[in-house]
Amino acid sequence: MGNLVQAELRKTTTTGLWWGLLIPTAVLALGWGLATGLLGQFFVDFASSSDVDEVSDFLGVTPDQWKVSLFGMARAINISTIFPMIFGAMAISGEINRRTITTTFLTAPSRMHSMLAKMLVYVLWGAIYGLVIMLFVGLGVVFTSSAGQLPDAGGWAMLTLVCVMSSILMTMFGVGVGALIPNVAGTIVLLLLYFLVIENVLHGVLAYLEVPSVIGFLPNGSINGLTGSVAVDLFLSTAGVVPPEIEDVLRAIAGAAGALDWWWSGLVFLGWAGVVFAGGWAVTQSKDIT
Amino acid sequence: MHDGSGLIAVQNLTKQFGSVTAVHNLSFTVSPGSVTGFLGPNGAGKTTTLRMLLGLVKPTGGTATINGRPFHQLGQPGRVVGAVLEAQGFHPARSARNHLRVYASAIGVPDAQADQVIGLVGLGSAADRKVGGFSLGMKQRLALATALLGDPQVLVLDEPANGLDPEGIAWLRTFLQSYARMGRTVLISSHLLAEVEQTVDQVVIISRGQTMFYGPLEQLRQSQQRRVLVQPSDINALATALRAEGVHAIEQLPDGRLAVSGVDSRHVADSALKAGVSIYGIQEEQVDLERLFFQLTSGQYAGHAPAPFKQQGGWA
């Protein structure tokens, strides 16, 4: 198994795809960090300058101490992890597309061995992407936010943890879908459509039907819940007493409307990744490589 | 684990793709120590058979084993069998050396082995070039190098001469023969008998997914008797003289010549002299393996001669 993991790792490092996708990931993360940081700063400036004392009384702290950057970071992480997901999606579909899968299967004890080795290597890559995303999101936010809006060391650590987890899980999900739909273009289009359009529409419909709690069990809803719930928890931990209605609004801002607790969200998405991978495995196992 | 015999055994192998039967009840064995040609016209089921042997395609029925085991039970298959297949891909952006290193680690052999096989197939100077820029022949050499990485006991090659220049084909021929002489098993497919005739010792000929002939190439040659074609001054006199000597396989050809089987041209000439018959021409017919091959495999996808032109109008 160690041999196959090394082989799969070499596959990823001997072509330019890893950095070809890592660069736009970093740019996107930085851009979203900068933009959301600015937006949060505007909001805080506005809140501080107007007569919204009631709100600050309500939250128990003055606006300049609101850790609004957390919401932006959660959103920035969510959008940036689309790239590691695409990277993962090309793991198996790319090999089928280029017909290198033949040699891969000829040199592995079984197809399951190949796929597991691949999954392990892409977990590692997911973590690397996650760290890079956190670094650039953090840079963007730090650059545009004043110190009062930034989390403390514990908050940074927690966000980094969920960012890396989120990136790993998204990569794993991509690997599974890439095995399930052995077509690079098809896989990528489907993933982008689903994560950027279809499920967002679904969230709207579910909210309209007044069953927002279902959202937390959907793939995008649960992965957003992982980072969003942490952002909301961190925000609330310094914001005093907040009524439930406001908390729902905050969750929506963080992109975690209807989401479960962060660790539950993570488990739900891990479940989705597992289901997709199992499906991809079943397809790959019985597939005739012609 | 496998028995290390180097034996390939295909038994009652059948593959159905939907309503199409690609391989039908195919059986043959390939022994170590010789090069076996796996022959048949395009679409006869060669590639599908080889892919079933290598665990890439799941048989509908029957078994295909290497060293007594199906492919997925070989443990580390890269060390037992190396394969060069059609439509076997390379990542165009990966260098030849890196390609080999990827699979060297998968098989569990040191990187030095990658450098060794790349030199062996004559790609040493192109090792660090991206495979995307390789010619078909260079890709074939790289595929062979990949197959050799694990120093396998069994080599399976699907149309390996495709894209190779004459020099490459000559090199491949020598290479495969010496590989087999080391006591290893070499199975090589082709749709042209002539292409592998000088390379192989054994042949398996298939057509329409079925085995048509299976045995030594020499046996195939002998299965067609040599004939002496002779043009005598007196056909009847020569035929009578030959019959008197116990030669009965005599046949008159449409061009007026006699075709005599079972004896050589010298024998026929001597008989003619004794019978006082002049000979205007005599030749020994060469065994045409290609023609035999056509006879064995004919019918599949056979084209028709163009229909004769018919005049439609009545004014001619």
Describe the structure.
The complex is a heterodimer of chains A (290) and B (316). Chain A is mainly alpha-helical and 290 residues long. Chain A has one domain (2-286). Chain A has helices at 2-13, 17-49, 53-59, 69-80, 82-97, 101-106, 111-144, 153-180, 184-208, 219-239, 244-253, 262-286. The longest helix of chain A has 34 residues, at 111-144. The radius of gyration of chain A is 20 Å and the shape is elongated. Chain B is an alpha/beta fold and 316 residues long. Chain B has 2 domains: 8-220, Rossmann fold (3-Layer(aba) Sandwich), CATH 3.40.50; 224-296, Alpha-Beta Plaits (2-Layer Sandwich). Chain B has 10 helices and 13 strands. Chain B has helices at residues 46-53, 96-107, 111-120, 136-148, 166-181, 193-196, 217-223, 235-244, 265-274, 289-297; strands at 8-17, 20-30, 35-39, 61-66, 81-84, 154-158, 185-190, 202-207, 210-216, 227-232, 250-252, 258-261, 279-284. Chain B has a 6-stranded mixed β-sheet, with helices on both faces. In chain B, strands 11-12-10-13 form a 4-stranded antiparallel β-sheet, with helices on one face. In chain B, strands 2-1-4 form a 3-stranded antiparallel β-sheet, covered by helices on one side. In chain B, β1 and β2 (20-30) form a beta hairpin. In chain B, α3 (111-120) packs across α4 (136-148) and α8 (235-244) packs across α9. The longest helix of chain B has 16 residues, at 166-181. Chain B is elongated and about 80 Å long.
